[in-house]
């Protein structure tokens, strides 16, 4: 009797996914990460072999996953091997995931080369990658994947690393496309088998184990096909003095050795080339931190001096301050006279005086130099190494690395990073992660402007600010390690090579980021300044200012004008930072500049972030998060003011 | 085929679901890596 889906209680239309692999590769662990707790276990008819199957959902589609007994070959010698064969040829699963032990890839490829003849779409899962990594075994997955014609993913199932990627990849399973290059007569036989069984797999097993397969074919396909198969086999065997099984196994082993040598490197630690040495230095915590501080200093210098002082001076003071703004102001006042509208347009807080001038003359040069620096670091491969060293460092001090990835993403854009928190499992985790991003991670645009502010202050403020940010990040990491689940982050990094950045890439990346800033961020800012302008002429702003006076002036020790800055902070933190930069040049004392910067560093990122929090977490949570962050930001900033008063710094 | 600048993952289909919920207008030219969620700007060699 042919084994089929029916025996497992499945319908013919149920899509099935078979897990296949050598013994002890972690297949059962992979199985449970894919299916969760629920599974059916049944004995394979007439044997003591147990088969588990369960359901899993991938990209919204439900699949039945069948675990097969671990086996090194599908040639039906043992009971386990027979069952594995029956599942693959009888149930004929829609897809096969082959689970492999990454430390022992040759054995896996041997099995793969048998499996691939069934022409079922496959994925190769290199499991136990953690152990391979610690033994410095490197597998070139991409090249291997190309060669085999199927997706190859890495997992460490016991730590759940790579599992979500595996799940995502299931849809992309492909029919293997690799040739073992059997001798001509064997190839011919296999192709003839294909006409009988629709694939070469059963024929291959027949050549490997004719006696056992003969009765299998009689039972499942009938006498006639069994006879034909036998004839094909005899004709092929005639050409060789040795058993076909021997020849085939030799070919398979040769091929897998070849593949192994080509795509698996056991790293030798001696004589690494210069790049490798530099790469290792950036990732070793002892050398990596000084390197990071050095890089940070270079960026700070580049943005703070070139961007903020040279370019901003020129644009803001010379071009906008002396030429454009006076001209526009005259133009507006001449054509519509003094009054509310011209106040909104060109008044102290006008759309033009503030909105356009700050966007173009202040923030644009800073952001451009910052994005330029960032693109260089990104293109030369430093950012992933920084991520890696941060990860190591966090672990060294007893925190796990889970916060590292969100931090890196948050530095790019808190809003986009917030979107990705939806992948977390529980509501509590999602809320904490959202809060951490909003409170703890300054985004790149804001960071650029803050660098510019720091360049105006005596250097020790920069160190203070770094200490503040560092403790803030540690707090975030600590919270994350307490609250977020999992052993390690569920993703696997393959470090891109460290290289000299390409000019073309840098220009392209910087260009798109600046363009994005101009087309998406500036309009929001203009709208914001317009609303604030309206608030000013209607007297609402004055009320707010009076209301906030005890906090802004009393607690934080800042001049009342800075209230505007915090209102701008609701629109975007980087604009508020630009406001501080503007005031710092004329009105604020260094310590006041610093206090305002601290408050803004901790502030809610931007309206876009607020909107996304509402969308993802609901209005209540969004309000609660903002309701916590703003008082907290003011509290910390004020605390610095009070302490500096006591110490007599002011 | 894209290659993620952060995690090195190679992929054909960026994670577009996340981008749909972004409140900005969506002309950022960035694509999201389905493995690590990093937003990258595709270049000739990535
Ligand atoms: N280090 C490490 N151990 C693993 C991994 N996956 C499974 N294991 C361990 O390997 C052993 C065999 O796993 P199991 O799932 O029973 O293997 P199976 O025979 O293929 O089903 C168990 O002790 C697992 O805990 C992995 O990714 N990394
Ligand atoms: Zn990535």
Task: Give your account of this protein's structure.
The complex is a heterodimer of chains A (650) and B (46). Chain A is 66% helix and 7% strand. Chain A has 650 residues and is α/β, with parallel strands linked by helices. Chain A has 3 domains: 16-172, P-loop containing nucleotide triphosphate hydrolases (Rossmann fold), CATH 3.40.50; 184-239, no CATH class; 285-647, no CATH class. In chain A, a hairpin with a 6-residue loop joins strand 2 and strand 3 (50-58). Mean pLDDT of chain A is 85; it is low at 486-490. Chain B is of the alpha+beta class. Chain B has one domain. Helix content of chain B is 11%, strand content 17%. In chain B, strand 1 and strand 2 (10-11) form a beta hairpin. The mean pLDDT of chain B is 75. The interface between A and B is medium-sized, with 41 and 29 residues. Zinc ion (ZN) is lined by residues 4, 6-7, 9, 33, 35-36, 38 of chain B.
Short description:
With 650 residues, chain A is an alpha/beta fold. Chain A has helices spanning 27-35, 79-91, 105-115, 129-134, 141-148, 163-169, 184-197, 201-208, 210-221, 223-237, 244-263, 274-283, 285-336, 340-346, 351-379, 382-396, 404-412, 414-420, 427-440, 444-456, 459-483, 503-537, 540-555, 562-571, 573-584, 590-602, 607-617, 619-647; strands spanning 16-21, 40-43, 50-58, 61-67, 95-101, 122-127, 137-139, 152-154, 264-266. In chain B, the strands form 2 sheets. In chain B, strands 1-2 form a two-stranded antiparallel ribbon.
């Amino acid at each position: 009797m042919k084994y089929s889906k029916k025996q497992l209680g499945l319908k013919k239309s149920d899509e099935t996914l078979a897990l296949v692999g050598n013994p002890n590769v972690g297949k059962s662990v992979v199985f449970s990460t894919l299916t969760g707790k629920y599974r059916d276990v049944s004995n394979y008819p007439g044997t003591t072999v147990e088969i588990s199957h369960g359901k899993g959902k991938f990209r919204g589609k439900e699949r039945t996953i069948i675990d097969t007994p671990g086996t090194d070959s599908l040639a039906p010698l043992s009971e386990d091997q027979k069952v594995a064969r029956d599942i693959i040829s009888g149930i004929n699963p829609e897809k096969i995931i082959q689970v492999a032990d990454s430390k022992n890839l040759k054995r896996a490829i041997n099995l793969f080369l048998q499996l691939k003849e069934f022409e079922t779409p496959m994925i190769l899962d290199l499991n136990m990658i953690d152990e391979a990594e610690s033994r410095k075994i490197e597998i070139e997955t991409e090249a291997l994947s190309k060669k085999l014609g199927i997706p190859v993913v890495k997992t460490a199932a016991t730590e759940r690393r790579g599992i979500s990627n595996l799940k995502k990849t299931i849809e992309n399973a492909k029919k293997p496309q690799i040739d073992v290059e059997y001798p001509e007569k064997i190839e011919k036989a296999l192709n003839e088998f294909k006409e009988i069984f629709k694939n070469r797999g059963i024929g291959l097993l027949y050549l490997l184990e004719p006696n056992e397969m003969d009765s299998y074919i009689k039972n499942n396909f009938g006498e006639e096909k069994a006879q034909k198969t036998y004839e094909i086999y005899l004709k092929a065997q005639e050409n060789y003095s040795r058993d076909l099984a021997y020849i085939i196994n030799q070919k398979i082993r040769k091929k897998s050795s070849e593949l192994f040598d080509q795509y698996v490197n056991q790293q030798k630690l001696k004589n690494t080339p210069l790049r490798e040495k530099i790469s290792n230095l950036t990732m070793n915590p002892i050398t990596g931190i000084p390197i990071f501080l050095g890089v940070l200093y270079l960026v700070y210098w580049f943005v703070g001096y070139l961007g903020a002082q040279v370019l901003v001076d020129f644009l803001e003071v010379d071009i906008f301050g002396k030429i454009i703004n006076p001209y526009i102001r005259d133009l507006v006042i001449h054509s519509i006279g003094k009054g509310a509208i011209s106040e909104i347009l060109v008044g102290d807080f006008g759309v033009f005086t503030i909105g356009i001038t700050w966007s173009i003359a202040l923030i644009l040069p800073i952001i451009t130099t910052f994005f330029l620096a960032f693109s260089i670091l990104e293109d030369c491969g430093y950012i992933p190494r920084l991520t890696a060293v941060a990860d190591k460092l966090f672990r060294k001090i007893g925190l796990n690395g889970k916060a590292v990835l969100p931090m890196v993403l948050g530095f790019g854009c808190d809003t986009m990073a917030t979107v990705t928190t939806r992948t977390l499992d529980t509501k509590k985790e999602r809320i904490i992660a959202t809060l951490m991003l909003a409170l703890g991670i300054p985004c790149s645009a804001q960071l650029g402007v803050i660098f510019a502010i720091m360049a105006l202050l005596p250097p020790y403020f920069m160190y203070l600010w770094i200490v503040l940010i560092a403790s803030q990040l540690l707090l975030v990491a600590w919270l994350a390690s307490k609250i977020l689940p999992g052993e390690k982050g569920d993703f696997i990094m393959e470090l891109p090579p460290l290289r000299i950045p390409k000019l073309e890439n840098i220009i392209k990346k910087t260009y798109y980021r600046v363009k994005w800033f101009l087309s998406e961020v500036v309009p929001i800012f203009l709208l914001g300044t317009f609303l604030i302008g309206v608030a000013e002429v209607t007297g609402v702003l004055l009320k707010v200012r009076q209301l906030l006076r005890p906090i802004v002036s009393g607690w934080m020790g800042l001049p009342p004008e800075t209230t505007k800055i915090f209102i701008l902070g609701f629109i975007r933190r980087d604009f508020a930072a630009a406001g501080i930069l503007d005031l710092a040049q004329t009105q604020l004392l260094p310590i006041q500049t610093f206090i305002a910067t601290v408050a803004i560093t901790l502030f809610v990122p931007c309206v876009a972030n607020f909107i996304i929090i509402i969308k993802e977490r609901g209005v209540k949570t969004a309000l609660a998060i903002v309701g916590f962050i703003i008082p907290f930001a003011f509290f910390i900033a004020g605390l610095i003011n009070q302490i500096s008063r006591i110490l007599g710094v002011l | 085929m894209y290659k993620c600048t952060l995690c090195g993952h190679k992929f054909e289909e960026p994670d577009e679901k996340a981008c749909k919920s972004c409140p900005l207008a969506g002309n950022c030219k960035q694509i999201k890596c389905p493995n690590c969620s990093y937003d990258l700007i595709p270049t000739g060699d990535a």
